[in-house]
Structure formats: structure tokens, C-alpha cells
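Example: DUF2516 family protein.
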Amino acid sequence: MVANVLLEGFYGLMSWVRLGLLVFAVFCFVDAVLRREDAYRAADKNTKQFWLIILGLTAAANLLVPGFFLLVIAGLIANIVYMVDVRPALIRIGEGGRGGGFRRGSSSDGPYGPYNGGR
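Written out as C-alpha cells, the predicted fold is:
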């Protein structure tokens, strides 16, 4: 009886995790679709087709093959690589190298902004 309740709770939690992984995979795929082809080459991050295939397979694996856990984990790793490495580089290229929305500091910046030597 208690084991059944625990298993139902676990399966409920895992269904939310699967949904989260699917949403993450679809977001990465759509983001890759919306980026320019030349930005991938300029950022030196494989080709757009490569990332579309990898991220598309990841989304399909999350949607169609939920029982094949190793494929889902490999897809999660690909999504994380895209989000932390490829996407920021594409954003920098797309914004003309301005740092992806963050202001790059100079060597004279203090903790509260630029330091101009009391001028």
C-alpha cells in the first residue's frame, strides 16, 4: 500500500522531469532554427545543420522514446552544450561582438563602474 503510493509519486515526478526535458529540448531546437547560418561559421561552432540534427534528434527522443534513458541523457548533454557554449557565441556574433548584452569592463573599472582617477 505505502509502496504503491511512493511509486505513484515517483512516476508523477518523473513525468514532470520528462516534460521539462522535452520543453528544454524544443527550446534549444527552436533557438537553433532561428539563428543565422553564417553565425555558426563565424563563431567556429560546427554548422547549423549539425546542431539542427543533434537537437532535433534530442527533441524526438524525448518525445517518442522516453524509455531509452541513455539516449535522453546524451540529448540532455547536447542541449546543455548548446546552451552554455554555442548559443552565447552565436549571440555575441549576432550582436556584432558586443558581449551578448553584458557590458565588457575595462582594466580601470571598479566594483561600482568606471574609475576615472578622481576627474
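Residues 3 and 41 are 53 Å apart (CA to CA).
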